[in-house]
Amino acid sequence: MGEGLLLWQALGICPGDVVAFTGGGGKTSLALTVVRELRAAGRPVLFTCTTRMFPVPWMEPVLTATAGDAWLEAVAAALAAGRPVCLGQRVEPETGKLFGITTEQVAACRQLRECVVLVEADGSAGLPLKAPAAHEPVIPPVADIVVPVAGAGVLGKALVPANVHRAPLVARLAGVPEGVPVTPEIVAAALVAPDGCTRGAPPGARIVPVVSQADTPDTGPLLRALAQLLLGRAPGRPGQHVSRVVLAAPATAEPVREVIGSFPGGPKGCRRPGSMRR
User: What does pTM read for this prediction?
Assistant: First the structure.
């Protein structure tokens, strides 16, 4: 399954959802693909982070630290004009990155009617797989969907810092020594173990793992094995389970390569009956 689906459909995004992206490299590309899809469909969408990220030049910039109490009105005005918004507190002069907003400010975005809020909630140093440090990920308590991400290109590579962010932590989560080849079992542990990339997801959040770089040659059987390992996993909070896994190549003309698993609300939209009007 997956033919003809847009990425927001594969993720099961509903109007008004807060979607948190965690895990390895590829989160920004995934989120911006969703931004473009929703913008093309005329739906309001906002992209932000709870860590740090580079501003998106083609999106409307709104800074909560300089707009005072009026920042939410500035966001609403941009959305009403049909512009997607890139939201942060301030730009760090040393790095040029946006300093992320607070989880309370994410919750305030709920006032933006039917706006989808996409949150980059983790950093990965550009590597395709990671395990979170003690302070990570910064998932908003209001998140409806948590998307842990791994890049298919890591499969078969050595579990060392050059290939995996915080490789010792990944090894500990998977119960393997450092330096071994990365297997689907290791990736599954990093994504959905209780102390993995979904740690801190609110109870009842929909957990939708994404394996990016799914156009990497000769990885098809490994990706399907990984998806089967992820399906049905309970990351550790009440109501959380993995019902589907998305194999994606967001930088291509076919961003959704395959969806493995079930769609609680049907294959082309969200799980809330009647809330997606096409």
Answer: 0.92
